[in-house]
TrEMBL record:
GO biological process: proteolysis
GO molecular function: peptidase activity
Region of interest (Disordered), residue spans: 323-344
Species name: Rhodanobacter glycinis
Record protein name field: Peptidase C13 family protein
Pfam families with a match to the protein in the record: Peptidase_C13 (PF01650)
InterPro entries in UniProt: Caspase-like_dom_sf, Peptidase_C13
Comp. bias intervals (Pro residues): 326-337
Top-level taxonomy: Bacteria, Pseudomonadati, Pseudomonadota, Gammaproteobacteria, Lysobacterales
Superkingdom of this protein's organism: Bacteria
Length: 344
């Protein structure tokens, strides 16, 4: 999965039509995906004969997807990412000594719908405002309105953010990942900010990403269709995994007309505003979602949970160190400014 969008990027850089991000970013991308650029890696990765259909797509008309008129170019956005992620990590509140701290990364994967941005930003506000100074949050999001203000939600930025957290977190601290996006039947999360060539993140990818970092205690929430497929590769004694749907079921509430998903509304807004226990909140949310789906005559999504034998006790230790604050109302983010031109 990791290398397929790289081929699209290479074609965009080498062929006159389609996405043109420049030779410098081409070299950066090859380095990011395949290690240092040498004559051998240039031979192996640049001079690949692509399928005919892909060439036709790359040489056809440019994408009609609108890119904000006031935004930097796609290349400028890409080059800004490492500094933006490092700045976001630097803005986290100070670590509270003597107590487990919780560090949340909220990841809004699909840039074509505001619902995912709304949910990720709300999760960050909820945790930092309601659960006090031992809760820290940063947002990675794909949205036309935040290209200059928030780091992109992509594989590389997730790794950079995890690297940053690894430098500030203590052994008793808890890492929390909240993913919200579209999901596929083969358990891939859509990661999209057109026209940037971003890699999907699959259920089998996350364990490898996490294994590169020294986090023992983990809470992972995957809010997407078919997200139950993320549980088998992620479950463990030190991990709590919650998903919005069974591995063979859709979840609901996304779309351009929606402000927040069913799962986000039920678990974040309704449940966690009344309890600090993630598992209790999950069961409350599951019942509420089932009622909504029954009312709307939808096939039940069947949210799933896996509770490791050790993580429940560690979360209880974290809860002992907090005094939950008042409820945090949900408000959708303002929409992106109007655009009048196609992507540069």
């Amino acid at each position: 999965m990791r290398n397929r969008p790289l081929l699209v990027l290479i074609l965009g850089c080498l062929i006159g039509g389609g996405i043109v991000l420049g030779t410098e970013y081409l070299l950066y991308a090859i380095h990011r995906h395949a290690g240092p650029v040498t004559s051998s890696t240039m031979d192996a990765h640049m001079f690949v004969e692509p399928p005919a259909g892909l060439v036709a797509a790359a040489t056809g008309p440019a994408s009609s997807t609108a890119w904000p008129d006031s935004a930097p170019t796609p290349e400028q956005v890409i080059y800004a990412q490492p500094a933006m992620v490092q700045a976001a990590v630097g803005r986290l509140g100070p670590h509270v000594a003597g107590k487990p701290n919780l560090y949340l990364i909220a990841f809004a994967g699909d840039g074509s719908e505001d619902v995912f941005r709304n949910e990720a930003e709300y999760a960050a506000r909820l945790f930092t405002h309601r659960f006090g100074p031992t809760a820290h949050a940063l947002v990675l999001e794909n949205n036309p309105a935040t290209l200059q203000t928030a780091p992109l939600a992509d594989w590389s930025n997730l790794e950079i953010a995890l690297d940053g957290l690894a430098r500030v977190m203590k052994p008793d601290d808890i890492l929390m990942l909240y993913f919200t996006s579209h999901g596929s039947e083969d358990h891939q999360l859509l990661v999209d900010m057109d026209p940037l060539p971003l890699d999907a993140i699959g259920a089998t990818d996350l364990p490898g990403i996490l294994a590169e970092h020294p986090f023992k205690w983990k809470v992972i929430v995957v809010n997407a269709c078919y997200s139950g497929g993320f549980i088998p590769p992620l479950r463990g004694s030190d991990t709590l995994v919650m998903t919005a749907a069974r591995s063979d079921r859709s979840s609901f509430g996304c779309g351009t007309e929606s402000d927040i998903t069913y799962f986000g509304h039920a678990w974040l807004v309704d449940a966690l505003n009344h309890t600090d226990n993630f598992v209790d909140a999950f069961h409350q949310a599951s019942h509420e979602i089932a009622d909504w789906e029954k009312h709307d005559k939808l096939t039940p999504s069947k949210p799933q949970i896996s509770i490791g034998s050790g993580i429940a006790a560690q979360l209880a230790r974290w809860r002992k160190g907090i005094t939950p604050g008042p409820t945090v109302p949900f408000r959708p983010a303002p929409p992106a400014p109007a655009t009048t031109s196609a992507a540069p």
